Amino acid sequence: MSSVPPSPPSSPELPPVLPASEPATILAPVRPAPASRGTVMALVLLAGAGLLSSVLLWQRLSAIQEQLARQSADSGANAIEARALARQAQDIARDTAARQVLLESRLSEVALQRTQLEDLMQSLSRSRDENLLVDIESSLRVAQQQTQLTGSPEPLLAALRSADQRLTRAAQPRLARLRTAITRDIERIRSASVTDVPGLLARLDDIVRQIDELPVANQVPARSVAEPPRKPASAPAAGPAMWWHRWRDTVLEEARGLVRVSRIDTPEAMLLAPEQAFFLRENMKLKLLNVRLSVLARQNETARADVAAAQQALYRFFDSSSRRTQAVATQLQQVQAQVKTTELPRVDETLASLATLNAGK
After folding, report:
1. Which of 6, 25, 202, 213 has the fewest CB atoms nearer than 10 Å to its CB?
2. What residues form DSSP beta bridges with 216?
3. 311, 328 in Cβ contact below 8 A?
4. How far is CA 244 from CA 46, 176, 237, in A?
5. Residue 295 burial class via C-beta count within 10 angstroms: exposed 0-12, middle 13-18, buried 19 and up
6. What is the DSSP letter of 216?
7. How far from 54 is each of 49, 51, 62, 66, 299, CA to CA, in Å?
8. Is 350:161 a contact under the CB 8 Å cutoff?
9. Domain boundaries of the chain, sorted by first residue
10. What pLDDT, on a 0 to 100 scale, did the predictor assign at position 219?
């Protein structure tokens, strides 16, 4: 709040000069009435308050100006930053537009490549199925040849199981009939009665090893070395009588060794010379080797005939009461039972299904 400062006191005016003709009348000067002290103090306080308020107002104005200057500077910086951001946004918008155009072009290229890839996948799928069928057919034909060579159905069963697993992984509906044919062939091969060739050959080898130990029918049994000499029932008297009894016992013992009574049903065995026993055993071995070759050649009828001839020779020339002869006869009967005339299994249904699929590509 501003206050008007008091005006300074006026200087005292001089009295006018009267003419000399007239007597002068001297008047005393009139002085103003002195102001009250309280009024002066009030005026001084009022002036100080006005000065103080002016200073405060000036400081406030200075602060406002500084604040306005800072705000103006901040506004300028913000404006510069806003212009930079706007320029950057424009650049980003241009880059985005360019990228969008590029992405659209690439999207069209990807769509074209996808179409080409789908065509290629279909072509590869058809080629894969064809290769799968060719591999399965070749593996089955090789397994069938192995089965014919070995006489065992295991190679054929293994090939069929492997083909079924590969078809399961392929998961192609058009190959379902082929899986059905493979399942039927597996069941038919499992139910087929096939000669166990490895076991049969092992049994024949065992019989051949026992031929040399078989006793012939007219073989004279050897006297046991550990057999103690027979003692007389009563001790004879010493002297010539004792010597006579010993000589008699020795002669009787030798006589018993020279004569052997046994029953031989076939005259051929009786006429067999001791040196011919070796050739008899070799002939038996040859017959059994012929059985082995016939089994390997899948000539089951010939193998059965050779086994029957070996059995006939065994009963004719060898001692039938011997345990070894009886054991060999039992084994020959088992061989005769194992040699079967059944044909080896085939996979004709699976091969026909493969041929149909290959023809309908």
Report:
1. 25
2. 318
3. no
4. 191, 101, 10
5. buried
6. B
7. 8, 5, 12, 18, 140
8. no
9. 195-219+266-344
10. 60
What is the signed CA dihedral for 108, 110, 115, 119, rounded to 10 degrees? 150
Q: Which residue has the tokens 């074209």?
A: 112
User: Of all residues in the chain, what percent are helix, strand and coil, respectively (each to 5)?
Assistant: 70, 0, 30
Q: What is the largest CA-CA distance in the chain?
A: 247
Question: In one letter, which amino acid is 355?
Answer: A
The torsion angles phi and psi of 216, rounded to 5 degrees, stand at -75, 165
With a cut of 70, list the residues of the chain below it in pLDDT: 1-35, 122-127, 193-195, 218-240, 255-274, 340-344, 360-361
How many CA atoms, within 13 angstroms, populate the side-chain half-sphere of residue 268?
Answer: 10
Of 161, 171, 169, 170, the C-alpha closest to 139 is 161
Contact 146, 155 (CB under 8 A): yes
Question: 284 with 313: CB under 8 angstroms?
Answer: yes
Pull the structure tokens for residue 122.
């279909």
Instruction: Report whether 260 contacts 220 (CB < 8 A).
Output: yes
Whole-angstrom distance, CA of residue 94 vs CA of residue 88: 10
Cβ proximity of 192 and 342 under 8 Å? yes
Burial class from Cβ neighbours inside 10 Å (0-12, 13-18, 19+) for residue 322 reads middle
Q: Buried (b) or exposed (e) across 83-93, using 16+ Cβ within 10 A?
A: eeeeeeeeeee
Other Cβ atoms within 10 Å of 167 Cβ, number: 19
**Which positions ≥6 away from 272 have C-beta within 8 Å?**
216, 217, 218, 280, 317
| Sole residue written with tokens 């005939």 | 305
Show the tokens assigned to 347.
């996979």
